[in-house]
Amino acid sequence: MTALPEWMYPPRVEGWYAKDLDHLPDAPKHTELIDGALIFALSPRPAWHARVVTALNRALAAHAPKGVEIEWNMTVRLDRRNRAEPDLLATTAPFLPQRTWFEPDDVALTIEVVSPESAERDRKVKFRKYAEAGIPHYWVVEREHDRPVVHVYELDGPTGTYAPAGIFRGTLDRPVPFPVTLGLDSLVPAPRRAGV
């Protein structure tokens, strides 16, 4: 058995802090921090996942109003021991070239495209953590017969939890966090039929 690299050992008994992620130059891309533990994303991710993330990024950027940017490969510092990396996010934060993370107050929407290795985190863990951090909108994109289905949630202020706001197939039409209408089936190529 090979010894773990030195950087993989947490610097304190309670684990890692959000600020520590910026000081792990040897950590794999897309390393997240959940409850003080480092989470390494499966790489490479399935082609379906990559295609949906790329197409959603372009489509949302085309709809985003002035002052809202769509980002990916960026983390959100949810609290001292949690720094999650959604597949996409919409932010109102000003552009800073050296930025590596956003505050929850700067994030209007987080989006997770579910893949087999992230399903539990996307559907349950991040669902709870994004709500606790006060992020107002959360979309979970599921794969159904090779088509994207978007489960939309809005933060309920009195309870501090997400409430379902709809499940969208074919077309997603939402007034918040900014007006957007998306043809979901156009995000990925149509599945090939046998013999074609």
TrEMBL record:
Keyword Nuclease appears in the UniProt entry? yes
User: This protein's superkingdom?
Assistant: Bacteria
- Which Gene Ontology MF annotations are present? endonuclease activity
- Keywords tagged on the record: Endonuclease, Hydrolase, Nuclease
User: Record's InterPro entries?
Assistant: Nuclease_put_TT1808 (IPR012296), Restrct_endonuc-II-like (IPR011335), Uma2 (IPR008538)
Residue span(s) of domain Putative restriction endonuclease: 20-171
Q: What is this protein called?
A: Uma2 family endonuclease
**From which organism does this entry originate?**
Nocardiopsis sediminis
The root-end lineage is:
Bacteria, Bacillati, Actinomycetota, Actinomycetes, Streptosporangiales
